[in-house]
Design a protein that fits this description.
This protein is α/β, with parallel strands linked by helices. The protein contains 15 helices and 14 strands. The strands form three sheets. It has a seven-stranded mixed sheet, sandwiched between helices. Strands 1-2-3-13 form a four-stranded mixed sheet. The protein has a three-stranded antiparallel sheet with strand order 11-12-14. The structure holds pyridoxal-5'-phosphate (PLP).
Length: about 450
């Protein structure tokens, strides 16, 4: 089925969402506050979520493999989280100072992640990476940062470089050019961002060595979670650690998504100890959150005692008690057994999709780690962001729309996430829906 036909079917099922979108477009550009969640002709409006399922304004139920872009790891409206939020909210929503809830969540994260000796909260992953980058600059007294092609680290200027898009003008694969991902990114930013090729340790080493004296930090999402979930080659992350250490470059591991993959996040899975780590999503249990932390001597730049902080971090809602309590309740549910179950759900889904591709001789691949997965529509060996680009550029959107029509929600680019609320049947429903979508292509 063509994208047009899938879209026509979607529109026929969602008249109430269309009406809401028209109201929204009168007061917001495109009717929306979140570019990533928009799709043509209009996104459906969520009415409620429970466990693994969501319902839209037209009453349609879908299994949620998007989970608010991987934030919801134990499911929607989990009673323990809702109770914690309600109990805290009854005593006041926010205050001009700290509450005990902040300490409890910080303790839980420090206990799980040995490289994080000390941390601070923000309201988003974007603010977390923005602070980590600023901190690295302050600590090293160097201006530039390095990032990987295809990696997303939020929406502040310093990381909106070489994220997604048509890679034709992105230069040599081994020496990528920094490309602005948005209008409004000044040339000064592009001059201070060095872009690295994923899974090419020799090229990375050459670039890092050439730029060593200028580089404050290398920021890395250990599983390239937004650039195709292309796994790091064996030893790649360890080589980056060695090289950054040798050159006095701080290694910032962006675990905003990958923290959901293990008790101690991606760094535990990969056995690498970064200088700084950024968090978001799951640690807020579904409410707005971010955090950055790491070496005590580096984090000391934020310490306001004894003469004042060298970096000032504000944020009216930083560490608000409602978010902190939701985070504590969520991490409490993420026991070692919970990760085993999440891994099993991810394995079942990836296994089912692989069998489907093999049986139908589809030009598709699935990557992933733990509860995360990504559907790819190319036969090329997946090594970096460029290799994940499908020849048929419309295919991810056709699949996304087809899956919506089959009662399955994932992300438009192909990323998906299982939650603890899912059953094996929910996962099988995903694979069967994909089979139907592909059969009518
Ligand atoms: C790896 C990574 N870093 C940072 C961010 C930014 O987080 P937020 O959307 O909370 O600003 C995201 C969001 O998807 C992310 O996936």
């Amino acid at each position: 089925m063509s994208l047009d036909k899938e879209t026509t079917e979607y529109a026929a099922k969602t008249p109430r969402s269309r009406a809401l979108h028209e109201e929204a477009a009168a007061v917001m550009p495109g009717g929306n506050s979140r570019t990533t969640t928009f799709f043509d002709p209009y996104p459906f409006y969520f009415q409620r979520g429970q466990g693994a399922h969501v319902w839209d304004a037209d009453g349609i139920e879908r299994v949620d493999f998007n989970n608010n872009y991987t934030s919801l790891v134990i499911g929607h409206a989990v009673p323990d989280v809702v109770k914690a939020v309600q109990a805290v909210a009854e005593s006041g929503l926010s205050f001009p100072g700290p509450t005990e809830h902040e300490i409890r969540l910080a303790e839980m994260i420090v206990r799980r992640v040995p490289s994080v000796e000390s941390l601070r909260f923000t309201n988003s992953g974007t603010e977390a990476t923005m602070n980590a980058v600023r901190l690295a600059r302050a600590f090293t007294n160097r201006a530039k940062i390095a990032k990987f092609e295809g990696a997303f680290h939020g929406t502040h200027d310093w990381v909106m470089v070489s994220v997604t898009g048509d890679t034709k003008s992105w230069g040599n694969r081994r020496r990528p050019k920094p490309i602005a991902w948005s209008a409004g990114i000044p040339a000064a930013v592009l001059k201070n961002v060095v872009v690295l090729p994923w899974n090419d340790p020799e090229a990375c080493e050459e670039i890092l060595t050439a730029e060593a004296g200028n580089l404050a930090a290398l920021i890395v999402d250990p599983y390239l979670c937004n650039g195709g979930l292309v796994p790091p080659a064996d030893g790649f992350m360890k080589r980056l650690r060695e090289s950054t250490e040798r050159h006095g470059i701080l290694l910032i591991m962006d675990e905003v998504i990958s923290f959901r993959t293990a008790w101690g996040g991606g760094q535990e899975r990969l056995g690498v100890r970064p200088d700084l780590t950024t968090f978001g999503k799951v640690i807020g249990g579904g409410l707005p959150v971010g955090a950055f932390g790491g070496r005590r001597d580096v984090m000391a730049f934020y310490d306001p005692r004894k003469g004042g902080a060298r970096i000032s971090q504000g944020g009216t809602f930083n560490a608000n008690p409602v978010t902190m309590a939701a985070g504590v309740a969520t991490l409490n549910a993420l026991t070692p057994e919970a990760y085993t179950r999440l891994d099993a759900l991810g394995d079942r889904l990836r296994g089912g999709v692989r069998r489907l591709f093999a049986n139908t001789r589809r030009r598709g691949q699935v990557t992933g780690v733990g509860s995360l997965f990504w559907l790819h529509w190319t036969a090329e060996m997946l090594t970096d962001y460029r290799s994940t680009r499908p020849k048929d550029a419309e295919m991810p959107q056709r699949v996304f729309m087809g899956m919506l029509n089959e009662g399955i929600l994932m992300t438009q680019r192909g990323l998906g996430a299982c939650s603890l609320a899912m059953s094996d049947e929910d996962v099988d429903r995903f694979v069967n829906a994909l089979a139907r979508v592909l059969a009518r292509q």
